[in-house]
Design a protein that fits this description.
Elements (H helix, E strand, L loop, with lengths): L12 H18 L3 H7 L4 H10 L17 H14 L1 H20 L2 H13 L3 E5 L15 E5 L2 E12 L6 E9 L14 E7 L5 E3 L13 E12 L3 E2 L5 H8 L4 H25 L1 E2 L2 E2 L4 H29 L5 H25 L10 H9 L9 H11 L5
Parallel strand pairs: 1-4
Antiparallel strand pairs: 2-3, 3-7, 4-5, 5-8, 6-7, 9-10
The structure holds flavin-adenine dinucleotide.
Flavin-adenine dinucleotide binds next to strand 1, strand 3 and helix 12.
Length: 393
């Protein structure tokens, strides 16, 4: 690995070895076909099998359940390396890895033993179903309803933009639904919200058609509909009425791999642009010999470093038991905004090639757009940072 990718204050030998493994894997397995996958807009099941054998889905699952129990820095290294080439794959892995980790956090020992090993290897995908058609930023305002009926919960409602729900591996969703304290369906809003493990093939579940998307095209995103879906009481995850709060508190760290994906995408833009400006001539000279061009590339490099530093500072703090409330929001906000700036500048430096759908920087440009939206928009991150500063927003 190039020396500039080492961050000696936070990477030990194991992190560096994992970084090397990831980079080699991506060159050997992910790079071939990345353009075609994106243009077709299809996830490649064989690629998912290879990623499963690499162990990327189970990084945050303890070894006892078939994962590797790795730290957050290792997860960020994987997210960064995938996103240098293929952000669609990076988010596919991210959603599965956080869902498996959340499932481990919330589920009973019996459920863990039954379901986690398949989730850790990626043989069974478990989606994360929070966002609703009425809005994702105000995530606690949940319209999907659950009511207790004998030994079952009965669920009605809809979820929107849910990743990993229509692949050959997609089997479950961790679903958030509101109910009243006595287990009846809520009459008003802001009722307690519980989390449930719902099989996607349960009667009453409909996986809607795949969304056509601007970016993350070869990741898989669908709406979900629930019509009188019955799940047994033991599929309730976490404490009754507290599943949403427990998930939210646990998943603060999940924004940091999105910052890592942003840093990886920025690196992908930088690497493609360095190659392009060295080989392309204009007015009889290599583009790279013009100071304006070289300064533009220098900015890409500086912005990429900034995104990486914020990401790994946050991950290191998490791994060493420090608070990350502020760092998770700051790293996600800044890295995703910088990735968009980098992608804009990289496409500009590519001229007309930066507008062609099959060029690497064009794919990165399209993929960058969601980074300031998914896993909490930039506005939501600013809200969290402002609240941390004591501002009444
Ligand atoms: C490809 C893709 C994959 C996704 N995968 C998943 C998934 O697997 N699981 C899942 O649960 N969700 C998923 N999502 C949903 C994603 O998390 C939401 O889209 C995101 O949280 C934003 O919610 P929204 O789209 O409803 O926008 P809204 O919440 O409607 O926001 C619209 C705009 O208003 C702004 N806004 C809202 N409230 C405020 C405020 N108070 N102050 C200032 N600005 C405000 C927002 O920042 C945004 O700019 C995915 C989305 C996409 C596009």
């Amino acid at each position: 690995m190039p020396e500039e990718l080492n961050l000696p204050w936070c990477f030990d030998d194991e992190h560096l070895a994992w970084q090397k493994t990831m980079a080699e894997f991506c060159q050997r397995v992910v790079a071939p076909g990345v353009v075609e996958r994106d243009l077709r807009g299809e996830l490649d099941p064989d690629l998912i099998g290879e990623v499963g054998r690499l162990g990327a889905f189970g990084l945050r699952v303890p070894e006892a359940y078939g994962g590797s129990g790795a730290d957050l820095r290792s997860m960020c290294i994987a997210a960064e390396e995938f996103a240098v080439l293929d952000s669609s794959l990076a988010v596919t892995v991210h959603v599965q890895a956080i869902s498996a980790s959340l499932f481990h956090h919330l589920a009973s020992e019996d459920l863990r033993a039954e379901y986690l090993p398949g989730m850790a290897t990626g043989e069974t995908f478990c989606a994360f179903g929070l966002t609703e058609p009425t809005g994702g930023s105000d995530a606690g305002n949940i319209g999907t309803r659950a009511r207790r009926d004998g030994s079952d919960w009965v669920i009605d409602g809809a979820k929107q933009f849910i990743t990993n729900t229509g692949t050959p591996f997609s089997k479950y969703v961790i679903l958030f639904a509101a109910h009243d304290r006595d287990g009846s369906a809520p009459s008003g809003s802001r009722s307690p919200v519980s989390a449930f493990l719902v099989p996607l093939d349960a009667p009453g579940v409909t996986v809607g058609p795949k969304y056509p998307k601007m970016g993350w095209r070869s990741s898989d995103t669908h709406p979900l509909y629930f019509d009188g879906v019955r799940v047994p009481a033991h599929h309730l995850l976490g404490q009754e009425g507290r599943g949403y709060r427990e998930a939210l508190a646990f998943l603060t760290w999940a924004r940091i791999p999105i910052a890592a994906m942003s840093a990886g995408l920025a690196r992908g833009c930088l690497e493609a642009t360095l190659e392009f400006v060295a080989s392309r001539e204009s007015f009889g000279q290599a583009l790279s010999s013009y100071q304006a061009v070289a300064f533009g590339v220098a900015d890409l490099s500086a912005m990429t470093d900034t995104a990486r530093l914020l990401t790994y500072d946050a991950a290191w703090k998490y791994d060493t038991g420090r608070s990350i409330d502020r760092e998770a929001a700051v790293s996600k906000l800044m890295a995703s905004e910088l990735a968009n700036k980098v992608a804009y500048q990289a496409t500009q430096l590519h001229g007309g090639y930066g507008f062609m759908d099959d060029s690497h920087v064009t794919r990165h440009y399209r993929d960058a757009r969601i980074l300031t939206i998914g896993e909490g928009t930039s506005e939501v991150q600013r809200m969290l940072i402002a609240r941390g500063l004591g501002l009444p927003v």
